[in-house]
Design goal:
mainly beta; PH-domain like; seven-stranded antiparallel β-sheet; 7 strands; globular
Length: 119
Amino acid sequence: MTEPEFTARGVRIGKRLRSLTRAGQVRIANGRLELLTSYGTEIDSAPVRTVRAARPWFASADRATAELNGTRYTLTMGSDAPPLGIAPPPARLPGPPTTGLTAARRFIEAVRHAGGRRD
């Protein structure tokens, strides 16, 4: 199994006005975008090249929308801060440095990159 191209945990996933999960997971791996519940159950998935992802102009910077199989989902990425009672991560994590992009913006860029779009 290959390494996922993008993973975000603790994502609030909603459809219209209904919240499907408050601690879900968004994963891009093997050319597919998967929306998962906190238990790992699949909410929806689709090939990345068919997914439309954007950030609504009226929403905060931590929100994005993803349209999979004709259904629009609202994704609230939140912060990468650990929950209360859990020790914070080390100050410097290995891997590529972040360039100040929010999790929602990184998600949109990952969808465009994995889908082969450069717009």
